[in-house]
Design a protein that fits this description.
By secondary structure, the protein is an alpha+beta fold. The two termini are about 35 Å apart.
Length: about 150
């Protein structure tokens, strides 16, 4: 008989619990991505809070997520005409938001942002040049968030 089926029934719940808990345990906290001082500055000036910056799509994309706390302040960075970019600190390379012809830019934009809503921006990571632990900056119009640390997916 296959050893997979020889696991005792009382151990199945532990295996299932571990499988669901693993992604939660790997998620970096906001303080690991950006310092508390920088978070406070973003909340005061731009009305947003950085939630995460992690690799996605097998490392070929970077997933930047943030929460809008004050829609009035955040409105200017959610403008569709603004082209966000991610700047790699070590090389100075600028990574762009992909814009496939059928679906458009891989980012959320809104004319009327909502409070307590999470928004995302995907940045292309060609050649997987940005690795977990690397420091980067995100620039969205006049907003520049420096010292962001990339985490695992």
């Amino acid at each position: 008989m296959n050893c997979f089926f020889q696991i005792q029934a009382r151990h199945w719940y532990k295996i299932i619990l571990f499988c669901f808990a693993l992604p939660i345990l790997q998620t970096a906290t906001a303080s690991e991505i950006l310092s508390a001082k920088e978070q406070d500055k973003l909340e005061q000036q731009w009305g947003i809070k950085v939630m995460s910056l992690r690799q996605s799509a097998a490392g070929y994309m970077l997933d930047f997520r943030y929460k809008v706390l004050d829609p009035v302040k955040a409105k200017q960075i959610l403008n569709r005409s603004i082209k966000p970019q991610l700047i790699v600190s070590s090389t100075g390379n600028h990574l762009q938001v992909p814009a496939p012809s059928k679906i458009g830019p891989l980012r959320q934009s809104s004319r009327e942002p909502r409070a307590d809503t999470n928004y995302f921006i995907f940045f292309a990571n060609p050649g997987r040049q940005v690795k977990p632990g690397d420091k980067v900056s995100v620039q969205i119009g006049k907003l520049e968030i420096t010292g962001l640390k990339v985490s695992n997916s």
